[in-house]
Amino acid sequence: MIDMISARPVNGLAFSVLDLATIAQGRTPADTFEHSLTLARLAEQWGYTRYWLAEHHNSPGVASSATSVLIGYIAGGTSTIRVGSGGIMLPNHSPLVVAEQFGTLASLYPNRIDLGLGRAPGTDQATARAIRGANMEGAQNFPYDVQALQRYFSADNRNAPVRAIPGEGLDIPIWILGSSLDSARVAAAMGLPYAFASHFAPSYFMQAINLYRQSFQPSRFLQKPYVMSGINVVAADTDAEAARLATSVQQFFMGVVTGRHRQLPPPVEVEEMDELWDDLTEQAVRQMLAYSIVGGPDKIRQTLAVFREKTGVDEVMVTAHIYDPAARLRSYELFAEAVKG
Q1: How many CA atoms are closer than 13 Å to the CA of 267, on its beta-carbon side?
Q2: CA distance 4 to 6
Q3: Other residues' Cβ atoms within 10 Å of the Cβ of residue 323
Q4: Taking the CA of residue 102 as centre, how many other CA atoms within 13 Å lie in the half-sphere pointing to its CB?
Q5: Residue 62 DSSP class
Q6: Cα angle vertex 23, ends 19, 53, to 5°?
Q7: What gap in Å lies between CA 285 and CA 32, rounded to an integer?
Q8: Domain regions of the chain by residue span
Q9: How far from 206 is each of 69, 209, 329, CA to CA, in Å?
Q10: Would you put residue 122 in left (φ > 0), alpha (ψ -120 to 50) or beta?
Q11: CA 194 to CA 184: how far, in whole Å?
Q12: Cβ contacts of residue 158 below 8 Å, gap of 6+?
């Protein structure tokens, strides 16, 4: 059974980090990885529960394509924080290979590894074809692949003709990630914790988590529903400075909306954004970033309180696309302080 006590909730809410290993303009993936490890070590001190890395491919601004390798790097450089995937895009991989990789990680870093699973490609269709080959319909097999993973991790699989070694018999928590009602149904039917990608796909968030809670079937892994939500947070010492820093993520998501992906740009003055986007692009970006908390300490606390009251989530996973490394660290520190009250 997944030990949710390890979530270390503060004031009833656990809080964690989601890192896309975003590459800022003028920097390299090596710089990004160094900054990620610095953040993970400090997040551990500040009381964050998990540090998850997301699988993405063929994006000039994201360096987390070899997700399991980065998880090992972060886990090896920290001591207590849980480290995992947010997530591994399961149709891109053989369940056996995932079981072996995460079995290796869990053997190296016992009781610290999480396996979050998604079914999206984490990239464009052309790249998905390059990754999946003939398995382009793999998303349809997602529930069966999750079950295959569970079998490989089970001690009962020791007499099977195909075994995951290392991996077999290890207690590696599996999470279902998603941004739709389908993922909510899968998580509920399998009795697994559910992480919703509300940090970039907010449309079905409330409907999906309500469906998950209503349909949840207790399992040997989890006795009651457990909901994690992704949120964008840009915190600074003042509201004005946070708003300025947030123009980086707004520009970054402009690339997503327009299909012109880019590295994370430096911030601009808030009023300068009017010259960078048109009304339709602004509307699309703001819709994608609907679940964002931007502001100084008081505003962060107030907005977080409203979000908790509205959603009742058990845990929030914070992502912060902030250009300056020091400002990014400060944002995570201020958020931790806000949760602690």
Answers
A1: 20
A2: 5
A3: 22
A4: 31
A5: B
A6: 20
A7: 24
A8: 4-235+294-340
A9: 33, 5, 30
A10: left
A11: 7
A12: 168, 169
Which residues are registered as beta bridge partners of 230?
A: 317
pLDDT of amino acid 122 = 61
Radius of gyration of the chain (CA): 19
Q: Scanning the structure block, which residue is given the tokens 């097999």?
A: 141
At 241, phi and psi to the nearest 5? Answer: -70, -35
Cβ atoms of 32 and 65 within 8 Å: the answer is: no
Dihedral sign for Cα 262, 120, 106, 19, please: positive
**Taking the mean position of all CA atoms in its chain, how far away is CA 260?**
23
Beta pairing partners, 62? 22
> Tokens 């990789």 belong to which residue?
101
Question: What is the per-residue pLDDT for 6?
Answer: 54
CA distance 247 to 100: 41
The DSSP secondary structure of 252-310, one letter per residue, reads HHHHHHHT---PBPPP--GGGHHHH--HHHHHHHHHHT-SEEEESHHHHHHHHHHHHHH
pLDDT average per 10 residues of sequence, the chain (341 residues): 52 92 96 98 97 91 94 98 94 94 98 93 72 64 93 95 96 93 96 95 95 97 96 97 97 90 94 94 95 96 94 96 97 95 77
The domain defined by 4-235+294-340 folds into: TIM Barrel (3.20.20)
Rounded distance between C-alpha atoms, residue 239 and residue 54, angstroms: 29
- Token readout for 113 is 């590894």
Whether residue 146 contacts residue 190, with contact meaning beta carbons closer than 8 Å, is answered with yes
Amino acid, single-letter form, for residue 148: A
- Name residue 124's amino acid: D
